[in-house]
Design the sequence.
């Protein structure tokens, strides 16, 4: 007996060890993932991961290059799986047909004017000579853009000279051979540390925020992934991005330890990292979430030099989406729901996903289901359309007139601060049936739309508009080619957020107003008869409506408008 048990245990153990060794052999058989960054911010962001031989069970190889041209060559030939590079370089490669996608933004502006000259403001640069790394790159274009916005002509009012790379320019500045230089961090801090006469004179990020009236700086550095690699290795890509996000968090919290690694792998002094890290603006944000910010920044660069972004704003395919994580999160939510229903065993309180789906399918097979659905959709879309027209009529003048904006702001704050239920209760006193939804949707959605349209109107470049007027561009062409492309991202955002509010408020109003036809009416009827599974089924129907319209807003507005904006001309 004992011998049989021992033999069985040994056999099981042998099988387990065989499985483990086979799995290990399979992991080792996969080729290493090639990850490349540049000396500077991109290398600094991934410095904690450089010593990791395995990430997500896969062998990885990190390398830090000094030449952006060398990295571009590797991306073009497909020799790199993931890479960190300037966002406009990524746009150029994508528009030229290179199969890459932006997975994350990691650098949010690191440019400063460094020198030994006394300056108080941008206007003091008149008559000066400034050295800039690489003509046509982000430092050059952003300098020119900020000079123009401060009333200086880069061609006539000062002299701009170019040096091959930030490393070379930093060496010249530290040696005292340059009076004014545009340098990225951490080189700016290193120059100041090596030559005490130098100091930070102007902050490009702060000036960008002031001119663009934005709370965040511009997205300068991104992580790109080879599209075919991402398609066949989505688990690894998502795992690496999660590890990179943690690495950046660790970097910002441990500057001293990060400095030691940076000196070893990125060729930057440890003391430089400790002093200059807060100005490096290293922060992780998924690429698809930063899409609006990326498009805004690229459009500003394109105004000066379309070739700097590959002649057009990249389309939706430029952004890597976490499809695996999205599917896993939905599956996880359904699993939690199923587990909770199974443990509770009270369908009256929490029906199972299966019962809810069966009820939804049963309801969708009736004519009344579609009448209720159509009534809610019709009221919502009509009310939203009316609100949008009113918002256009009010928001554009308010965006152009500061006095009107000042008068309008308290009203918008009041409307946004008033609970939706207050509007519904008042509407029940004044209106009947479906009219309640019209009234409530308009009051809830209107301030959101107006605010977005005001911001969109303010985003119109006044200098570009004045130039168009000087060249006697027709008003219709001016509207079509200058005004609308600047406003479109804000209009798209207002449509997306406004529609989301519309469905929630519409159903809530219907629950209390009880119109003859409407989803809210059916939800309340199901509640009265304790048909909880029907309440859940109608709720799923509303969620599906929201998802469909959110997708339509994204597909019909953001994608074509992004391309249109990128190719606008006067």
Sequence:
């Amino acid at each position: 007996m004992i011998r049989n048990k021992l033999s069985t245990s040994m056999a099981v153990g042998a099988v387990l060890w065989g499985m483990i060794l086979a799995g290990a052999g399979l992991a080792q058989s996969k080729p290493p993932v090639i990850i490349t960054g540049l000396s500077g911010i991109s290398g600094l962001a991934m410095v904690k991961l450089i010593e990791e031989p395995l990430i997500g069970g896969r062998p990885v190889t990190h390398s830090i290059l000094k030449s952006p041209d060398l990295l571009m060559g590797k991306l073009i030939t497909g020799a790199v799986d993931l890479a960190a590079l300037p966002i406009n370089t990524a746009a150029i490669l994508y528009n030229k047909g290179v199969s890459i996608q932006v997975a994350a933004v990691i650098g949010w502006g690191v440019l400063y004017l460094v020198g030994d000259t006394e300056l108080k403001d941008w206007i003091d640069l008149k008559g000066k000579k400034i050295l800039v790394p690489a003509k046509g790159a982000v430092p050059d274009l952003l300098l020119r853009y900020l000079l123009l916005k401060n009333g200086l002509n880069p061609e006539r009012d000062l002299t701009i000279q170019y040096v091959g790379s930030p490393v070379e320019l930093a060496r010249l500045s530290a040696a005292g051979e340059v009076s004014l230089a545009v340098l990225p961090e951490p080189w700016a801090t290193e120059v100041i540390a090596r030559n005490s006469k130098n100091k930070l004179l102007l902050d490009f990020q702060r000036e960008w925020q002031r001119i663009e009236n934005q709370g965040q700086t511009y997205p300068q550095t991104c992580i790109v992934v080879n599209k075919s690699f991402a398609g066949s290795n989505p688990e690894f890509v998502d795992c690496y991005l999660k590890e990179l996000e943690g690495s950046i968090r660790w970097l910002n919290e441990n500057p001293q330890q990060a400095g030691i690694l940076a000196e070893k792998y990125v060729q930057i002094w440890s003391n430089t990292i400790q002093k200059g890290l807060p100005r490096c603006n290293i922060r992780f944000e998924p690429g698809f979430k930063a899409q609006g910010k990326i498009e805004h920044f690229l459009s500003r660069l394109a105004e000066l030099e379309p070739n700097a972004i590959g002649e057009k704003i990249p389309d939706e395919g430029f952004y890597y989406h976490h499809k695996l994580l999205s599917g896993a999160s939905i599956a996880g939510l359904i699993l939690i729901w199923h587990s909770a229903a199974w443990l509770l065993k009270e369908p009256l309180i929490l029906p199972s996903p299966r019962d809810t789906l069966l009820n939804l399918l049963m309801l969708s097979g009736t004519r009344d289901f579609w009448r209720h659905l159509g009534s809610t959709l019709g009221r919502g879309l009509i009310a939203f359309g009316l609100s949008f027209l009113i918002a256009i009529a009010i928001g554009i003048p308010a965006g152009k007139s500061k006095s009107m904006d000042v008068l309008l702001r308290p009203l918008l704050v009041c409307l946004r601060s008033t609970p939706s239920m207050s509007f519904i209760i008042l509407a029940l006193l004044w209106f009947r049936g479906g009219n309640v939804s019209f009234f409530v949707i308009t009051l809830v959605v209107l301030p959101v739309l107006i605010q977005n349209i005001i911001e969109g109107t303010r985003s119109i470049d006044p200098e570009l508009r004045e130039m168009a007027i000087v060249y006697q561009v027709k008003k219709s062409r001016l509207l079509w080619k200058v005004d609308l492309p600047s406003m479109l991202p804000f209009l798209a955002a207002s449509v997306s957020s406004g529609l989301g509010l519309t469905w929630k408020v519409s159903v809530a109003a219907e629950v209390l107003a009880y119109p003859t036809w409407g989803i809210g009416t059916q939800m309340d009827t199901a509640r009265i008869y304790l048909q909880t599974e029907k309440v859940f089924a109608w709720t799923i129907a509303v969620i599906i409506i929201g998802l469909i319209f959110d997708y339509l807003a994204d597909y019909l507005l953001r994608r074509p408008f992004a391309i249109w904006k990128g190719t606008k001309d006067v």
In short: The longest strand covers residues 58-65. The first helix runs from residue 2 to 29. The mean pLDDT is 82.
